[in-house]
Design goal:
The structure holds two protein chains of two kinds. Chain A is an all-beta fold. Chain A has no helices and eleven strands. Chain A has strands at about 5, 10-15, 20-25, 30-40, 45-50, 55-60, 60-65, 70-75, 85-95, 100-105, 105-110. In chain A, the strands form two sheets. In chain A, strands 2, 4, 5, 9, 10 and 11 form a six-stranded mixed β-sheet that branches. Chain A has a five-stranded antiparallel β-sheet with strand order 1-3-8-7-6, with no helix packed on it. In chain A, a hairpin with a 4-residue loop joins strand 7 (about 60-65) and strand 8. Chain B is about 0% helix and about 50% strand. In chain B, strand 7 and strand 8 (about 75-80) form a beta hairpin. By secondary structure, chain B is an all-beta fold. Chain B contains no helices and eleven strands. In chain B, strands 2, 4, 5, 6, 9, 10 and 11 form a seven-stranded mixed β-sheet that branches. Chain B has a four-stranded antiparallel β-sheet with strand order 1-3-8-7, with no helix packed on it. The chains are: A mainly beta, B mainly beta. The interface of A and B includes residues 34, 100 and 106 of A.
Chain lengths: ~110, ~110
């Protein structure tokens, strides 16, 4: 059975701290790994990592994909209260599951002033 | 450009009642999806539509039906609501199944008593 597991499930830090969120996966026909940020409502897209793009960076956020060890990390440096959200990892598969995403449970990040 | 819109935002049903959740996108996307989100379980795919005129089951389809009315609209129907269907429901869309990046609507919070 395909599995996407995120850790930790929740994390509380103070502004300025650096955090690392983890996502491990066991899926058939892996094609891509995506990170989403969910504040009060809809998840919003952060990064997509594939075989041809295993490292992405945008401002204080960066992510890497290790296809050999089957995991990804999302790093946030110099955290701000606006980074408080649920961070979701999802894996896209090919074959008969083409286009569908399997999500992890999410990591709830709380950043205190 | 409204993106993905969902109605209603909130709904309370009694066990056994039926209702339809509506979703529309104005991005000319081909693929559309329905998810449910429960605490600690991330997002789980209920049904998806790879293109107009096609629908397929996801991880948790029991108790639901869908209709891809046209390219823009994808509705989710609960024929006989059960308390286990209390959840937040998200609709999403993507260009095609080959583009795993999905855009999400604001969600519908459904409570079944």
């Amino acid at each position: 059975e395909d599995k996407v597991v995120q850790s930790p499930l929740s994390l509380v830090v103070h502004e300025g701290d650096t955090v690392t969120l983890n996502c491990s996966y066991e899926v058939t026909n892996f094609r891509s790994l995506l990170w989403y940020k969910q504040e009060k409502k809809a998840p919003t897209f952060l990064f997509m990592l594939t075989s041809s793009g295993i490292e992405k960076k945008s401002g204080r956020l960066s992510s890497i994909l290790d296809k050999k060890e089957l995991f990804s990390i999302l790093n946030i440096t110099a955290t701000q209260t606006g980074d408080s959200a649920i961070y979701l990892c999802a894996v896209g598969r090919g074959g008969t599951s083409y286009g569908k995403l399997t999500f992890g449970q999410g990591t709830i990040l709380t950043v205190h002033p | 450009n409204a993106g993905v819109t969902q109605t209603p935002k909130f709904q309370v049903l009694k066990t056994g009642q039926s209702m339809t959740l509506q979703c529309a996108q104005d991005m000319n996307h081909n693929s559309m999806y329905w998810y449910r989100q429960d605490p600690g379980m991330g997002l789980r795919l209920i049904y998806y539509s790879a293109s107009e005129g096609t629908t397929d089951k996801g991880e948790v389809p029991n108790g639901y039906n869908v209709s891809r009315l046209n390219k823009r609209e994808f509705s989710l129907r609960l024929e006989s609501a059960a308390p286990s269907q209390t959840s937040v429901y998200f609709c999403a869309s993507s260009w095609t199944g080959t583009s795993y990046e999905q855009y999400f609507g604001p969600g519908t919070r459904l409570t079944v008593t």
